[in-house]
Amino acid sequence: MKYLVTGGAGFVGSHLAQALVDAGHDVVVLDNLSTGHRAAVPEGARFVHADLSDADVTDRAVAAGVWDAVLHFAAVSLVAESMREPFLYLRRNFITSLNLIEACARHGVKRFVFPSTAALFGGEGQLPRIPAEARIEPGSPYGESKYLIERALVWADRICGMKSACLRYFNAAGADALGRLGEDHRPETHLIPLTIDAALGRRPGLKLFGNDYPTRDGTCVRDYVHVSDLADAHIRVMSQLDERSVTYNLGNGVGFSNLEVIQSVERVSGRKVPWEWAPRRGGDPAVLVADSLEICRETGWSPRFSRLDDIVETALRWRVDHPNGYGSC
């Protein structure tokens, strides 16, 4: 099969591209490297340096191949930043995606896979787990931008016949079990790598944002799903697109609090994590945990890394072996 992976030099996109290469497929990675890393593009994948904000460049990239599917990971994705720069997020995520969707429809792409987000859901009153049919109520411009893209894909199906999968996943975490790929954001904002770096003495003490949420220990609860499990789900879901478009929530189905993440890192690393309380951040729901029963039932997917300590262990090994991220490669 031949696949185009946009944003394939980023965290989740690179793991998906690696999984496709490992399975023997022909993979082209398109990325502008604004947040991704050239060293994260798997050996065996062809790299195209391009920016989806340029509609003509996007059209030429799609026209250059006959794709069995396009998998679209390119996005800006920081919830807190989107609260400060709402129009930047709405513009960059939606317009670039619209350029790509339009090009795919124009050139006869039949299958489109889109990593959406749990940020579509407000979180409150949707315990214990959030199903895909839960009320859409984005708590941030980032979440809103992803929902706009989902709606564009609905119309691409109705009018152009392009089938799509929207995978609303929760907190991607961990690293490739063979140590080939890992998480390297500049700056890093995700809790697990930040906690690991604090334990390793590579950054100042950690700040936990809010201790008065209506949760078991007062801190936010999130569903952490291993990045390689996400890659597996994206591959499995493509068989569904021969007949229909689908939308799934995707996660472990188990929530871990911020304090529990700290405790896991301490157990796995054998080191203490320095941390302190900080005020709540805007746009952070108290609880986001996925109900993934539908994708499990319909595709046979299930997470291999279901324990938080196992997810943390792969992330820790990557950060120990790559103290400068992909700059160490």
UniProtKB/TrEMBL annotation:
- EC top class named in words: isomerase
Pathway info: Carbohydrate metabolism; galactose metabolism
User: Do you know which Pfam families this protein is assigned to?
Assistant: Epimerase (PF01370)
Q: Which reaction does it catalyse?
A: UDP-alpha-D-glucose = UDP-alpha-D-galactose
Q: What is its EC number?
A: 5.1.3.2
Checking InterPro entries in the record gives: Epimerase_deHydtase, NAD(P)-bd_dom_sf, UDP_G4E
Which residue ranges does the record assign to the NAD-dependent epimerase/dehydratase domain? 4-251
Keyword line = Carbohydrate metabolism, Isomerase, NAD
Name the cofactor(s): NAD(+)
Q: Give the Gene Ontology MF terms in alphabetical order.
A: UDP-glucose 4-epimerase activity
Q: SUPFAM superfamilies, per this entry? A: NAD(P)-binding Rossmann-fold domains
Biological process terms from the Gene Ontology for this record are:
galactose catabolic process via UDP-galactose, Leloir pathway
Entry keyword Isomerase: yes
In terms of superkingdom, the source organism counts as: Bacteria
Q: How does it assemble?
A: Homodimer.
Task: Give the family, as the similarity comment puts it.
Answer: Belongs to the NAD(P)-dependent epimerase/dehydratase family.
Name assigned to this protein: UDP-glucose 4-epimerase
- The organism encoding this protein is Gluconobacter kanchanaburiensis NBRC 103587
**Gene symbol?**
galE
